[in-house]
Amino acid sequence: MKDYLIKFEHDSDKHIKEICDNIYNFHKSTGSNGFVIGMSGGLDCALVGALVSRANVPIIAVTMPFEADKSSQRLKGIEHAKELCQTFNIPLYTIDITVAANDIYQELEENIELDFVNKKLAKANVLPRLRMTNLYLLAQLTNRLVIGTGNLSEIVMGYFTKWGDGGYDYNPIKHLTKSEVYILSRKIGVPASIINKTPSADLWDNQSDEIEMGISYNDLDTFILTGKGSTETRELVKKALKRNKHKYFFNLIEQLEKYQWLEDIIK
Q1: What's the CATH code, domain 2-266?
Q2: CB 159 within 8 A of CB 248
Q3: Number of helices (H), then strands (E), in the chain
Q4: Domain boundaries in the chain?
Q5: What whole-number distance in Å separates Cα of residue 191 and Cα of residue 83?
Q6: Which of 33, 46, 58, 214 is deepest in the core (most CB within 10 A)?
Q7: 93 by DSSP, 3-state: which?
Q8: What is the DSSP annotation of 104-169?
């Protein structure tokens, strides 16, 4: 993978231009007023925000904290979101989702008498779904589209919330591994404070992407880019793809593929 990434970094200007051109062309094809992005202060959304800004496409960012006063990690994320948006001149708004999330938790627990499992993760996944709802509400109110921020490494592992951060209209970095995200982030000028912190979805304090997935980004990206890796890595990826299959196959247009008229229309 080392040789591949050296070449990728050497060609980073070309990759950035290509992605920015794609963003610009997609925007022009939609007739929208631009994009809405959820800005957590993490690396992926920082890169996407920077790329859209570089593409000269209008974008507004929203940070949506949950109980930030109880988490130094989440407070730091808000500061990083502000830093990124100041760096690339992106308007940033704040919507606190604490009350909304807790109301959903409370109503469900008070009104449904069942044995609950996976409570920590189930509750945590309400947060990205609430954020998605806010983003789409704002997008529709302002004639914009929701832009996605998930990288290829996360997609392979199913490390995203269905109908949460996995819900968007367009994702310009879905083909980039985390290693490639780091390279382009450094090249385009994402602040070092964001690049150097431990990758985390911030679903709870001290959460780490690599711990949650059970694999390092280096091992995962090596396998994705070269097909090489340990038996353990291969089995982990295989199990992840099987476990998360439901996240990948929900495009309803697949139900229409048998009709000839559809093929004629979309050619």
Answers
A1: 3.40.50.620
A2: no
A3: 15, 4
A4: 2-266
A5: 8
A6: 46
A7: strand
A8: HHHHHHHH--S---SHHHHHHTHHHHHHHHHHHHHHHHTT-EEBP---HHHHHHT-S-TTTTT--S
Rg, Å, the chain Cα set: 19
Return all residues near 175 (Cβ < 8 A) that are at least 6 apart.
152
Residue-wise pLDDT for 124-161, tens only, equals 999 999 999 999 999 999 999 999 999 999 999 999 99
Reading the block at residue 175, the tokens are 């083909």
| 129 CB neighbour count, 10 Å cutoff | 18
Residue with tokens 């993978």: 1
- For the entire predicted model, the pTM comes to 0.91
Single-letter amino acid code for the residue at 132: M
HEC readout, 185-210: HHHHCCCHHHHCCCCCCCCCCCCCHH
